Amino acid sequence: xxxxxxxxxxxxxxxxxxxxxxxxxxxxxxxxxPRHRATVALCRCGVSTIKPFCDGTHKMxxxxxxxxxxxxx
Length: 73
Ligand code: FES
Hints:
By secondary structure, the protein is of the alpha+beta class. It is 12% helix and 16% strand. The protein is built from 2 helices and 3 strands. The radius of gyration is 14 Å and the shape is globular. FE2/S2 (inorganic) cluster (FES) is lined by residues 15-16, 43-45, 47-48, 54-58.
């Protein structure tokens, strides 16, 4: 993928990375991961059953992107 739609990655608090725009996703072997939506959510908690995509399990496991002491600031 290249081009017309600039890539934008948004880190969701306590959740996935939202990827918008023309970005190719490949696995560890360099094989293209099919992407069926203009915006995809990539797992960063490590427990999704559909990696590299988020399946919402981060909510069930209480995934946090900040330490509790950082939240009070
Ligand atoms: S970030 Fe959602 S399942 Fe991992």
